């Protein structure tokens, strides 16, 4: 075995060791959450911390369901997440197609103004948004939880960059055949952009599923609360019930993990193939 072959194998081994160490470092908080969800309150506060529970409390998950209206919160979260995701996929893809393929006055200026929205923290516009929602009489309804979340400058940018990498010959051929702009968008661009659409869907689902501040401010009744608010109720000002908090967090996280496992191929493909041309 020559020197170059040995050095190549050593380099690959070092890379795999670093990747394994990084993966272990990333998964440790998740393993700690699982372990804590089965502990008693005393075990969760023990010093030094113990990885495994002294006694396994499987009833922590039942206590979560009994303490908060978990089913209602779960259903509300699913409805809001689906509404925002579908809305963003439709509106962002339409806007992205317009910026990528159509010609209209001030297109670049409008697109730059849209990107400028990404530099504005959401907390800055929270109070004006609350006033607007109050004038619409949307407070404490699904409208306030879904409609403002279906507009995304990031989603438009992501899809626009992907659309610009698609072959223009397909669009030119469709125009020669008499296809309208909408038919080109629906029959050509969307089918070729499955990976990018799945990537945007995953980003939107994660943001909607974990959203806390907006639902907390815009809703007040228990019937309109979402999972993030329900789980945060286990964290008090003076004490936190960590086993119940971790059990609720695990139940809320599992659907997202399962979804990512099934869609990770499209997600990685969409990120890898996303164009960078201007």
From TrEMBL:
Q: Which residues form the ABC transmembrane type-1 domain?
A: 74-263
GO annotation, cellular component aspect:
plasma membrane
**Which keywords, in A-to-Z order, does the entry hold?**
Cell membrane, Membrane, Transmembrane, Transmembrane helix, Transport
Q: Which residues cross the membrane?
A: 12-34, 73-97, 109-130, 142-163, 184-209, 242-263
Q: Which GO terms describe its biological process?
A: transmembrane transport
Cellular localisation: Cell membrane
Does Transmembrane helix appear among the keywords?
yes
Question: Which InterPro entries does this chain map to?
Answer: MetI-like, MetI-like_sf
Asked whether the keyword Transmembrane is assigned, the reply is yes
Q: How does it sit in the membrane?
A: Multi-pass membrane protein
Q: Which PROSITE patterns match?
A: ABC_TM1
Report the family membership. Belongs to the binding-protein-dependent transport system permease family.
- Name listed for the protein in its UniProt record: Sugar ABC transporter permease
| Species this chain originates from | Paenibacillus glucanolyticus
